[in-house]
Amino acid sequence: MQTAATAKNVQQAIERGHLADAGAELAALPAQDAAAVLDALDRKTRTIAFRVLPKDRAVRVFDHLDPDAQADLVSTLGTADVAEAFDHLDPDDRAELLDELPAKIAKQLIRNLSPAEREATAVVLGFPRGSVGRRMSPEYIHVFDDERCGTAVERVKRRGRDAETIYAIPVTDHQRRLVGVVGLREILLADPDEPVADHANPPIFARADEDAESAARRCVDRGVLAMPVVDHEGRLIGILTLDDAAEVVEAARDEDEARAGAREPLRTPYLQSSILAITRARVVWLFVLAVSAILTVNVLEVFEGTLEQKVALALFIPLLTGIGGNTGSQAATTVTRAIATEEVTGTDVARVAFKEVRVGLTMGAALGLVGFGVAGLAYDRGIGTVIGLTIVSVCAVAATVGGVMPLAARAIKVDPAVFSTPFISTFCDATGLVIYFTIAKAVLGI
């Protein structure tokens, strides 16, 4: 609420031409709060507001801006105006911003970096997008396993200012192979002559080409302050800090929630997003769902004769398709979460299917009993039997399909969230109708 009020004040000051007032209000805020205010402004106003900030203040605020807002500023102001702010970014944040910029502007910004910063950025850019190597920081400090704790503390004092963090320190051998992790507290309180290896713990680490979301969830779930990142030979090349890991997890959650609602995530705040951007985020999924829904229409057409003979069957179609879709979505959401937290892997398909079919049968038995009673009282026992058996069957099939689909997606290197709730619902609708009319024909003899 405070951010929105400040953003409104800044915008009004700029519209009235009171640029000094706008700059003073922003400069009085902590850098992170000032960045939140700029993120809330439209593109034109944000550019003016950033211009009126004092230079040293602008550098710190730029560091906290959303990558899309950073890219907008670079594109609008030009590389010269933001070169210093770009130089002060951490290499992982710099790499994320470069991904958002046109190649020509990105090359110009890299060219303006100091040699040391250019080398650190190149390390991060050398890994595939979406990998933890792109999100790690190559600015870390490490100690050797055979050196004394007193020597290690002196190393931290000398080089700690240039490191991303100093509280969790990777321990390596002299070939830079990771052998453990030690806390700053442990070596500070230890006898200076004791070897570091006596205080090191087994490392929780990630490989640079590993999926960033998977590594970040492991870092967050285990509360690791800094997760070492190694290459394919086990040599230390960077760290993933807890705050960076939390950002990755939050972004992945936003993306999953968006896709579960049959849309792509917006890259900018809703009120600042163009009509075209919002349409593009939604329309592709609507096309996919429309094509999928044709299956349902085709099923109804095939069983048109059955409906004509027993019109009452049509009244229960919304109930059955709703139960099937919701059951499948529940299973898919549960398994997708289990995949993300590494509780389930691609080799567990049979175990997941067996568990979900039993869950579906259990839920279906409870719901089917209610359906049998209500439909039997409202119409006749035959209709009640059809509804009861269909609910049991639909729940079993929907739960199994919903549980297996995310694993199938993972096997073919597709984000499990792509199999969104509406997509699974539509699939289960068609399958449920086939089951429904097949049981109806068998039980009622039509």
Automatic annotation (TrEMBL):
CDD domains: CBS_pair_Mg_transporter (cd04606)
Annotated CBS domain residues: 197-255
Top-rank lineage group of the source organism: Bacteria
Annotated GO CC locations: plasma membrane
Membrane-spanning intervals of the chain: 283-303, 359-379, 385-405, 417-439
Example of a GO MF term: magnesium ion transmembrane transporter activity
Gene3D superfamilies: CBS-domain, MgtE N-terminal domain-like, SLC41 divalent cation transporters, integral membrane domain
Keywords per UniProt: CBS domain, Cell membrane, Magnesium, Membrane, Metal-binding, Transmembrane, Transmembrane helix, Transport
A Pfam family reported for this protein in Swiss-Prot or TrEMBL: CBS
Name this polypeptide is given: Magnesium transporter MgtE
Source organism: Gordonia crocea
